[in-house]
Amino acid sequence: MNALALLTVAALAAAPSPSSKKDREGPLFLAPKVGFIKPLTSLGGDLYLAGEVGYLTPLLQRRLALVLEVNYHRPSTSGTLRGPSLNNLGQPVEAPYTLAEREVAIQLSAVFRFPRALGPLTPYVGAGPGLYLHRATVESFDSTASESGGGLGFQALAGAELPVGPGGVFLEAKFHFAPVGFLTTGDVNVGGVLAALGYRLRL
């Protein structure tokens, strides 16, 4: 009987605990994202594609992560422009136009995680600076004009992750501020709000 008790205690001591399993998880992670973004201007909504690589630091009980993300979207709008010339009836010549604003962003965020704060879900929040590269293209009156530039902005995000397999499925919302000052757009914030779905793979 004593031998059986000793074997039971030894087996329990050798079994990996949830905390030790958590400690063995790698600090690096990768995640593809896809979502929908709506700029704060008159530009329409567009498909949002992104990928991130992150590092879960040992700080704050391994709750603080540094995340580098690269994303792309190209919202557009269309309408009618009046040209400087007149037609045979003495009225201004009108022509349709399309304005597209391509953006590639490189964003660095500090993300604080709340492990299993909502049952199996791990909520998180984050913010940080970003480098935003823009190219605005206008097509009208059988001609095309483009402007390119870049500038600094910032982003804030919040999301929740559900463990699935070797990583986790997550849903994320983000706001980003990206000022631009083109002739075609004026001085505006072409940032926006977005929702994205992805899978975060722990390495």
Pick out its properties.
single chain; 203 residues; mainly beta; Porin; 8-stranded antiparallel β-barrel; 10% helix
Beta-strand portion reads over 45%
* Envelope shape: elongated
Output the structural class.
mainly beta
Mean pLDDT: 84
- Tell me the domain tally: 1
Which CATH-level-2 architecture?
Beta Barrel
Rounded to the nearest angstrom, the radius of gyration is 25 Å
SSE pattern: HHEEEEEEEEEEE
Overall strand count: 11
Largest sheet: 8 strands, antiparallel, barrel
Q: Report the CATH topology name.
A: Porin
Sequence of strands across the biggest β-sheet: 1-2-3-5-6-7-8-11
Helical content (DSSP H or I, runs of 4+): under 10%
Low-confidence stretches: 3-23
Short characterization:
By secondary structure, this protein is mainly beta. The protein is built from two helices and eleven strands, in the order H-H-E-E-E-E-E-E-E-E-E-E-E. The strands form two sheets. Strands 1-2-3-5-6-7-8-11 form an eight-stranded antiparallel beta barrel. Strands 9-10 form a two-stranded antiparallel sheet.
